Amino acid sequence: METAIEVRNLITHYGDREILKNISFSIPKRKTTVILGGSGCGKSTLLKHLIGLLKPTGGEILINSNDITKINEDEMNGVRKKMGVLFQGAALLNSMTVAGNVALPLREHTKLNASTVNIMVRMKLDLVGLSGFDKFYPSQLSGGMKKRAGLARAIALDPEMLFFDEPSAGLDPVTAAGLDELIVNLRNVFGMTIIAVTHELPSVFTIADYVIMLDKGQVIFAGTLDELKASDNPRIRMFLERKPEQEMYSPEDYFKIIAGE
């Protein structure tokens, strides 16, 4: 598989605490890669590195053979023009209509005239199932509709790579399933490279072609979804089978651990 992003020996600290511990992996082009793991494992920190919002302590992140950890902000902005990001809370501007939110990147980063921008906005809203909602404000939308509006804005510039931060967070199962289906369609129709950070297993099983699993700041798995399901790694089995931490130990060992022995 062609590589879209290559991470080499990435290390991150928050103060004295090491968050990402010398991790390395590759993300394939035109596939959906899920970065999976429990709370506090380093998923969100890794996402911030991949989109250039946070500099690591050490290591490399290669996008189109360019190490984004070494470039300046102006150069990084050029890279970001090829990226779309849907943040966990959609991050819509409440003072602007849905159409205004989607049009914002087109107005900021292109020289398209107003009529062409309006056509592009309608196309993007239609693509995510929000035709007719262009004059609504974010406060008038449901949680799922906000996510779709945020997605329309994320794909406004037809990015090569699309990033999702917990796309199903806060959504009911039916709405989450609809968003998962939309992600699959974007990959299939437009051949986008999609990277999604999540711990929601139903979404993982629906959208993932490739999985990177983190545990305590380390990569414990990198491979296809089928390979993940077949893994006999006890940490992976515990996560996939929704077993609490203590089930990995005998009762005697567990009580010793919590007693600090």
CATH top level of the largest domain is: Alpha Beta
What's the CATH H-level superfamily name of the largest domain?
A: P-loop containing nucleotide triphosphate hydrolases
Main beta sheet: 6 strands, mixed
Computed over alpha carbons, the radius of gyration is 20 Å
The helix content, as a percent range, equals 25-40%
Instruction: Give the integer mean of the pLDDT values.
Output: 89
| Distance N to C terminus | 47 Å
Care to count the β-strands?
Answer: 10
Strand content: 15-25%
Helix and strand sequence: EEEHEEHEHHHEHEHEEHHH
Indicate the structural class: alpha/beta
Helix and strand arrangement:
Blueprint lengths: L2 E12 L2 E12 L3 E5 L6 H8 L7 E6 L2 E2 L5 H8 L2 E4 L11 H12 L4 H14 L15 H12 L6 E5 L7 H18 L2 E6 L2 H7 L2 E6 L2 E7 H6 L3 H7 L10 H8 L3
Parallel strand pairs: 3-8, 3-9, 6-7, 7-8
Antiparallel strand pairs: 1-2, 1-4, 4-5, 9-10
Helix pairs in contact: 3-4, 3-5, 4-5, 6-7
